[in-house]
Amino acid sequence: MPMRTITNPILPGFHPDPSICRVGEDFYLVTSTFEYFPGLPIYHSKNLADWQLIGHGLSRPEQLQLPTKNPNAFGLYAPTLRFIKDRFYLVCTNVGANEGGEGNFLIWTDDIAGEWSDPIWLDTPGIDPTIFADDDGQTYYLGTHKEIYLRTIDLASGDLGPRQNIWTGSGAADPEGPHLYKKDGYYYLLISEGGTSYGHMLTMARSRSLTGPYEACPNNPVMTNRGTNLPLQAAGHADLVQDTKGNWWAVCLAVRPISYPLRHLLGRETCLLPVDWSNPWPEFGEEGHLPESIQVDTAAAPKETQKKSSKPDYVTLFEWDPTLIEEEPHGFLLHPNQTGLSDQGKLAAVFQRQTAFDQQFQATFDCRQLTDGQAGLTVFLNATHHYEGYLEKTASSQQLVFRRQIGSLWKVEKKLTYAADTVTLQLSADKETYRFSVVDEQGQAQPLGRGETKYLTTEVGGVFTGIMVGCYASASSSQQTVHVRDF
């Protein structure tokens, strides 16, 4: 049996709150995307090790409107993916979608690599929804609203039955992220507790009856990396899946801190760990911890899924508006508006995830049709924490600029006169520093500016996402364009 050692995370970069299901020999996985669009990326694998992006649950702006509040901390939280009666279903929360703060919804598809339905809005409070199909065919909705609750759900209409509270957790803070499984006559409820930071953990309870009472696992937490020096921290928010050979696995989120005091910048990433369910209570990972590396049988991986897609998951903030962004054969055509990186609202920007500490990004900006504005490369945590290098054009000057914003403080750190209308900008990252450069005609990178990574970490800037690197443009008036190539 060919085995391969894989290193967590299996989906590096900002990929929190994973949910997984299996259909035959195929595994499918979805993660949260918060304020980014297209939202809810769908990944496919044959072996749990090699994953390929095949689509998005939300790919049409008319499906829903993401909140454009500032700082960015709203949008699509904690989806669950399930396959029930030959159809795929996603439930999720659009946080901040209305005055009540939540908007739970259901979408479905018969072709997971294709388009998904418009949302069926669910009249129920809270976050972190999941669905469960019992042996008799009845389907249930579970949610988090101070505690874990259960309701019947009609997947065609979204109609919900009466609410029944079933578990308050093991006693730690913030019980959330429920998933329900049935095994050997028991209903097993898996949740997260301890908050989303370094006290994060998984706990479990079970009952012979769907509605309880639920008995807490005597070994809770069943998985946590809190209080350890392990390289992966804040592990939690898991979902379980069984492979065709009967083995159980969990996908969960975790972070890779960069220093002491602990800080992380890549976001919460998707990890994989084995689960031994040969005893009544499952045993997660290595003695209840998420390991950095695991052994996976990769015999099932066909050649096409062993090759990583060369195209990143390009996204934008809030909505992919064709009046602002057009795809081209080798890049994007940006139609800038007056919205900048520190503003609320849609803007002309395309982002991809930073997926490794040591990583380089580059893009060429053709600004011949930009007369009064700016275009450049940004490393972006949120609207109040970002660094950028850009070409700025006005009626009287044309300059390369390096700027940093940390909270309400911002500073233009360098300005250089630059005569050409086309510029290639480069960003080089390591654990400590982001370095911006301009690439000269000989292909050599000339320094433009640098900034510390620590000020763009979640512990400094807040929110639930991770570092994105983007190409953007803004302008004082319409009818200006910027071509972006080779990003």
TrEMBL record:
Give UniProt keywords alphabetically. Glycosidase, Hydrolase
GO terms, biological process: carbohydrate metabolic process
The residue ranges crossing the membrane are none
GO molecular function per UniProt? hydrolase activity, hydrolyzing O-glycosyl compounds
Residues at the active site: 17 (proton acceptor), 176 (proton donor)
A Pfam family matched in the record: Glyco_hydro_43
Domain (Beta-xylosidase C-terminal Concanavalin A-like): residue spans on this chain: 326-483
Q: Does the keyword Magnesium apply?
A: no
| Positions of the record's site feature: Important for catalytic activity, responsible for pKa modulation of the active site Glu and correct orientation of both the proton donor and substrate | 128
Q: InterPro entries per the record?
A: ConA-like_dom_sf, GH43_C2, Glyco_hydro_43, Glyco_hydro_beta-prop_sf, Glycosyl_Hydrlase_43
Its family?
Answer: Belongs to the glycosyl hydrolase 43 family.
This protein is called Family 43 glycosylhydrolase
